[in-house]
Amino acid sequence: MEITAKTAEQLRLTAEEFELIKTKLGRTPNFNELCSFSAMWSEHCSYKNSIKWLKTLPRDGKKMLVKAGEENAGLMDIGDGYGVVFKIESHNHPSAIEPFQGAATGVGGINRDIFTMGARPIASLNSLRFGKLTEAKTQHLLAGVVHGIGHYGNCFGVPTVGGEVYFEECYHTNPLVNAMSVGILKNGETVSATAEGKGNPVFFVGSATGKDGIGGASFASADITADSAEDLPAVQVGDPFQEKKLLEACLEVIQTGAVVGMQDMGAAGIICSTSEMSAKGKSGMRIDLDKVPTRQQGMKPWELLLSESQERMLLVAEKGKEQLVIDVFKKWDLPCSEIGEVTDDGILHFFVDGKLEAELPAYELVLGGGAPVYDRPYTEPKYFEKIKAFNPDSIAVPKDLKATAEQIIQVPNIASKRWIYVQYDSMVGTGNASTNAPSDAAIVLAKPTHKALALTTDCNSRYVFADPYKGAMIAVAEAARNIVCSGGQPLVLPTA
């Protein structure tokens, strides 16, 4: 097929980005290559519109064991030879279209980011936003999201120990579903998401690849509209029992000493993991896509590259130790296929039945490499004028304060959320120390250490709406206070 700017536009790339791709390749990309750029240059993968601001966040600390943004999750020293791994990430658009699977796979994906680094997840949290609770659509989304979080977390065997829920009309179309996971590992046993060592074998491990989740990264970066329901195939389908096996297999294979690098095949699937691992290791890969285990016959190269099927990892092993890897995944009854090898030319070569289907420079695809970075214009919203003009003294004090208080405690944002969190298993793993003695933050035993972690997610959305700068400061301060009031020392602030 002829590849034009119109083709790029249909893949959510701009005409300017299409020209930039042609410049970087020195030719017009084929369809498989253009699909790859579409996924990797989406906001979800490249942060092309937000990285300018994200880089202004404080990123250094004495207890950091890896640099911020260097690996799939953050890692901090907690003493006694152990580190805590943590991450929070959104799964908003999938949850807006299919709330159960959207939320469930958000939980699955964030946990994979933890154990792909060699850590065992010990706790999950979430932060949710929905429209008005009186709306039937909100009730549908809330029920599906809560069920999805509970189902995946309960089956996977990691307790949900904390979170928050907020209702406001502005979230009617696009709910916010943020999932957080925390894990523990021994210092020095971290696995990096890096591909290096010419000739080292590349393994596909975990669930077979299907057509669910194709184009999910691009979909997650687009606006939700009345037509978004047509993007249902972009939503992934999760299997928490398969992920539990994958967790144990990955932690076991790390102990063999055969693993050079490993990365979750989350957003953008194979193209993401191959390009990011190669770019980080200043290497390339030769991949035979026909060796990728599949659930459906006749999958096209671009579908194999972009599928976001869940519970999968890309693993680079040390040459000569292939059988160690194969034996572990065979023990756990998980697909394990050697699909290629690491090269030293910085180029990703993807073949199907010996035919070259895509040839891409890894560096040009990724955040921090060739992905575009934009400095977008911005203006102060008009509603700020109304907020600044508001005088709180203009509100009359109610005559019947008791009746007013009774009304306030019935507001969904004020009322107890017990009816939500009882649907989560908060005690699996016997590490949650807050079940009988509630605290401002969840207290979780950091097994196998003799320490405990205080964990929380906090934000007052109305403060952020009224003043994003001060509102964000207040959110950080609230979270820190909850940690301190629970006897903890604030250590780290993960951001979605």
Q: Can you walk me through this structure?
A:
The protein has helices at 5-10, 15-25, 31-40, 43-46, 51-54, 92-97, 99-115, 136-156, 216-220, 240-254, 269-280, 301-306, 322-331, 362-365, 383-389, 401-408, 418-421, 461-466, 468-485; strands spanning 74-79, 82-90, 120-130, 160-167, 176-186, 201-206, 259-264, 284-288, 312-317, 336-343, 347-352, 355-361, 442-445, 452-455. The longest helix has 21 residues, at 136-156. The protein has 496 residues and is α+β, with helices and mostly antiparallel strands. The chain is globular, with a radius of gyration of 23 Å. The protein has 2 domains: 74-189 and 427-485, 2-Layer Sandwich (60s Ribosomal Protein L30, Chain: A); 191-365, Phosphoribosyl-aminoimidazole Synthetase, Chain A, domain 2 (Alpha-Beta Complex), CATH 3.90.650. 35% of the residues lie in helices and 20% in strands. The protein has a 7-stranded mixed β-sheet. It has a 5-stranded mixed β-sheet with strand order 1-2-5-3-4. A two-stranded antiparallel ribbon has the order 13-14. It contains 19 helices and 14 strands.
Judging from the principal axes of the Cα atoms, what is the shape? globular
Percent of residues in helices comes to 25-40%
Query: Can you count the helices?
Result: 19
The biggest beta sheet is recorded as: 7 strands, mixed
CATH architecture of the largest domain: 2-Layer Sandwich
- Unreliable stretches (pLDDT < 50, length at least 5) are none
Q: What is the rounded Rg?
A: 23 Å
At the fourth level of CATH, the homologous superfamily of the largest domain is PurM-like, N-terminal domain
Arrangement of strands in the largest sheet: 7-9-6-10-8-11-12
How many strand segments? 14
Text of the CATH class of the largest domain: Alpha Beta
Structural class by helix and strand composition: alpha+beta
